[in-house]
Design brief:
This protein is of the alpha+beta class. It contains 14 helices and 32 strands. Strand 31 and strand 32 form a beta hairpin. The relative contact order is 0.08. The model has no long low-confidence stretch (mean pLDDT about 80).
């Protein structure tokens, strides 16, 4: 155990984690020349194209220092806020962390939030200034920021470049010298933390774990503490570019276990593996991953409903945090109500459905879940506007609030404050990290950042602001359900749960947009936005008319009037039996309405 080092790399998005991991693997000869490619640990096409890590990865390396062989277990983590629970489990499996800061951008929001996670877990931090070979590198300023943040000595900060390999040998030596070896007792009862799982179509679900105490052998009967299920360890081993089976794994080791499980839901990240018969042996900190953003996914053609169900089930095997249940809509037909960790997660699921399963889908307006308390004392969790009961039965509605951390240049404080106030945010704290960087902490409703907050933040700050958030609690709020009626008929796909102060604005926007998009009919169409029985906005599409009086020339006016009255009766009858067909483009445009 003295020669094992378990560590992770933490940084903000796009600060070079995956590129540095490539250089570490090259330098320790953990991958052959044939396997060498950029972002070798990111195995999805989307990860490569977007330059983000979606799924955390783990890999073992061997390193020789001072004539001794060392085993390094690198647990790569995703940088995006949506996957922060995966990051927290990966960090809990390590003794040390490489804190990577891009010296062209400086410290950003997720650098700090992931660093706090590492400090809470008592990890040894090795600060690294990355991308020192770039033209716009601000090496000394970035070092100042790190010293202010960590309180470390200036000489402890390593200068490196993931692209060219500068400083990689210094980093490897620092891992040996500074990160402590894992502690644990190989003879104690087995205690292993699951920090990730992947689905293999031939072997079932493969769980990645870190052993704190005890020994795990092939063929042992194991129990998963939180799911209370028992299995036989068909195969255990270490993680390299491929799986390497071993007969036994001991305290301090990081590896994988295959038990033949076919359902991804049966293995939960954060669960503890122990031997069958062991009681009260678990690693603290387990929590179920709860989806925070909900949206409806519908096939463009209703005949593809079963194909979409199969695609979502297959996708769920690789992504246990995706939840879905069937639902139907008058306007869109049959589809699914899906829960996501956040907006990036939603985007990735949509993209994977299109790429991997060739499914073209419509996604309804994303919304968050609310707690509704009725006058009879019942609590209803509302994922969909149609779930909200009649206003006369509602005692109060609570919505989730977040604490958001924004780091920016002082020049943009005013515009960012204005944006957050518009989103019903309240400023809680403002601290100057350095003379050129300020940290602002706001509390605001999650529903307000779901649509376009991140894009607007980037545009008002010209790309300089970084953003991170965590869910705080649920708070009472004045929420109403706004319905859209076409000729008095509700169109459920356009319904929205919205704060009362914003309902009038959104209602009139929606009506104006629909007036542009709906085709004219032979009869008049009334487009109305309503809260309960109260109409808050209205637009009218006039009927297409034929000039029935064209054949009347000269003669008495009563002849023309008679023809017009006859036409009026026909239009009225048409309106009673006529349906307003809402084209697909109208649904798509309304979904994008909040981005305007």
């Amino acid at each position: 155990m003295q020669h094992i080092r378990n560590f992770c790399i933490i940084a903000h998005i796009d600060h070079g984690k995956s590129t540095l991991a490539d250089r570490l693997l090259e330098t320790t000869h953990s991958i052959g020349e044939r396997e060498q490619q950029d972002q070798v640990l990111d195995d999805m096409d989307i990860e490569r194209e977007r330059g983000i890590t979606i799924k955390s990865h783990a890999i073992q390396m061997n390193y020789v220092s001072g004539g001794k062989d060392y085993v390094f277990n690198l647990i790569d983590t995703p940088g995006h806020v949506d996957f922060s629970y995966e990051v927290s489990r990966s960090i809990a499996s390590c003794e040390g962390a490489l804190l990577l800061v891009d010296c062209t951008q400086g410290i950003q929001a997720q650098t700090i939030s992931n660093l706090y996670l590492a400090i809470e877990n008592d990890l040894e931090i090795i600060p690294i200034v990355n991308k020192v070979d770039m033209d716009g590198a601000m090496i000394e300023e970035t070092k100042d920021q790190i010293v202010d943040l960590l309180g470390c000595k200036r000489e402890e900060i390593i200068k490196a470049s993931g692209k060219t390999g500068i400083g990689v040998d210094t980093i490897l030596q620092a891992i040996v010298d500074r990160i402590p070896a894992p502690s644990g007792d190989a003879d104690a009862p087995l205690q292993a933390l699951i920090f990730d799982s992947v689905f293999n179509s031939y072997r079932g679900v493969v769980a990645y774990f870190r052993i704190y105490n005890g020994t795990l052998k092939k063929g042992d009967k194991v129990r998963f503490v939180h799911t209370k299920k028992q299995y036989v360890a068909d195969e255990v081993g270490i993680l390299r570019m491929t799986y390497e089976p071993k007969e036994e794994m001991r305290a301090g080791d990081v590896g994988y276990i295959i038990t033949g499980i076919k359902q991804a839901k049966e293995i939960k990240v954060g669960d503890t593996i122990t031997h069958a018969g062991n009681e009260n042996v678990f690693v603290k900190g387990f929590q179920d991953v709860k989806p925070m953003v909900f949206a409806g996914i519908y096939p463009i053609d209703n005949d593809d409903y079963e194909d979409l169900r199969e695609s979502l089930e297959k996708l769920q095997l690789n992504d246990a945090s995706l939840v879905f249940e069937p639902e139907s809509s008058i306007a869109l037909g049959f589809g699914f109500r899906c829960g996501f960790l956040g907006l990036l997660h939603l985007e990735i699921v949509q993209e994977r459905l299109e790429r991997e399963f060739d499914q073209s889908v419509i996604i309804t307006v994303p919304n968050v879940s609310y707690n509704c308390y009725t006058t009879s004392g019942k609590t209803i969790v509302v994922h969909n506007p149609s779930d909200l009961p009649d206003p006369s039965y509602i005692d109060r509605v609570e919505e989730p609030y977040i604490r958001s951390q924004i780091i920016t240049k002082p020049d943009y404080i005013g515009v960012i404050m204005k944006l957050c106030m518009e989103k019903r945010g309240t400023l809680k704290n403002q601290v100057y990290l350095t003379t050129t960087r300020v940290e602002m902490v706001f509390e605001m409703p999650l529903a307000e950042i779901v649509f376009d907050f991140y894009d607007k933040l980037k545009s008002v700050s010209r790309g300089y602001a970084s953003f991170d958030y965590e869910i705080v609690d649920f708070r009472p709020s004045d929420l109403v359900r706004m319905d859209v009626k076409l000729n008095g008929e509700n169109v459920d796909a356009f319904s929205a749960l919205i704060h009362r102060s914003k309902a009038y604005d959104l209602g009139s926007k929606l009506c104006r947009k629909l007036k542009e998009l709906l085709p004219r009919q032979q009869f008049m169409i009334a487009i109305q936005a309503a809260i309960g029985a109260k109409i808050i906005a209205r637009e009218t599409i006039s009927a297409m008319r034929k000039d029935v009086t064209a054949k009347c020339y000269g003669g008495d006016i009563s002849r023309k009037r008679k023809l017009l009255e006859k036409q009026k009766k026909g239009k009225k009858k048409m309106r009673q039996i006529g349906n307003v067909e809402v084209p697909q483009t109208a649904f798509m445009a309304v979904l994008k309405l909040n981005e305007d």
